[in-house]
Design brief:
32% helix; alpha/beta; Purple Acid Phosphatase, chain A, domain 2; 387 residues
Amino acid sequence: MRLLHTSDWHLGRAFHRVNMLDAQAEFIGHLVATARERAVDAVVVSGDVYDRAVPPLAAVELFDDALHRLAALGVPTVMISGNHDSGRRLGVGAGLIDRAGIHLRTEPSACGTPVVLADAHGDVAFYGLPYLEPALVRDEFGIDKAAHETVLAAAMDRVRADLATRARGTRSVVLAHAFVTGGQASDSERDITVGGVAAVPASVFDGVDYVALGHLHGCQTITGRVRYSGSPLPYSFSEAEHRKSMWLVDLDATGAVTAERVDCPVPRALARIRGTLEGLLADPGLDRHREAWVEATLTDPVRPADPMARLSERFPHTLSLVFDPDRAPGGPDVSYARRLAGRDDQRIAEDFVAHVRGAGPDAYEQAVLREAFDAVRADDTVREVAR
C-alpha cells in the first residue's frame, strides 16, 4: 500500500504578516496532483490542519476544497487533529464525511478503533491518535499522572489490543501528533511541555508498521518506521534550512517500509543574514538572497539610521530585523531577550527566585512552580477548545 504522509498545514497562518493563503492553496493542488500521479492508495494528515481553534473563513474554505478534491480523486484520507486545532470543530460531521472516504479522527476515545483499508496483500489498519492534552484526557485513559508519555502509552495499549484481535498479517499505521525524542524543533511550534517534559520516546509506538507523526515542522526520520513529514511551508526563519516535503511511503506485504521524500512548492527561499548594516549592503556574496524572504540581524554597536528602508533597497523582501550588537558577554547592555534566550518558563522563574532572595528554589518549590505552569497551560488549552 502506498501512503502520502503530510501534516502541519496550519491553514490561515501568515509568515511575518505575509498572507500565505495562496501558497497553501498551491500546496493543496500539489498534494492532490501527487496523489493522482504517484498512484497513492491513502493520504494521512497528522494534525494541525488549521493554525488556530477558530480559523478564518478563507482557511475553512480552502480545507473544504481540499476535502472535495481528495474525495473526487477517490483516494481515502485519514486525518487527525493537532494541538492547534479544535478537535470538536474539526470533527463535526465526521460520520457523514466517512462515507466520502475522508476519515476524521479527533476523539481520544476512538484511538483503538481503526480505519481499515485493503490492498492486494490484505488489510491495513489506520489508527488516529489526535493530540492528547494530558490534563484533559487522563480520565479517559484512567491514568493518575498527566504526562505525554503516559497518555500516549495508554492510547497505544488500545491500538495494540485492537490489532491483536485482527487477522494475522494485518499491517498497521498510526497517526500521532507529539514531540518524540530525537526530533529537532523549530521556533514555530507551540510548546506542549507538561511536567517539564515534552518529548516521548519512539519506543511508545512499538508494535506497528509505520508511525506518521505531526507537530515538528522539519521533515525528519526518527527511525525507519517513525517519521515526521514536517510542515509543507515555512512559518518561521528558524526553518531556513528545511527542505519542505511529504513522505511517499510504501508498505509491502510484510509491513516493511520504504520511503521517498516528495518536495513541496514554496513561494520563496528563506535567508538569515548577519553583520553590520554597511557590511550587509556591500557584501557581493549576498546577491543570491535578493529574491528571498530575509531576516537581517544587525551587529552594529550603535543602532544605525533607517536600517529597514536601506536593507529593503537591496533585499526587497526583508521581513524581520533583529538587533544584536557585538558587545562583551554578560555586559550591562546585553538585552533582556538575550539573557533569557534558550531558557524555558520554569528556568526563568527559578532564576528569578534566585535573583530575589539569593538562593534558588529547593526541590519542593521547583515542583510547585512546575505544577503552576502546567495548570496555566492546561487552562489555556481548555479556553482554546471552548472557543
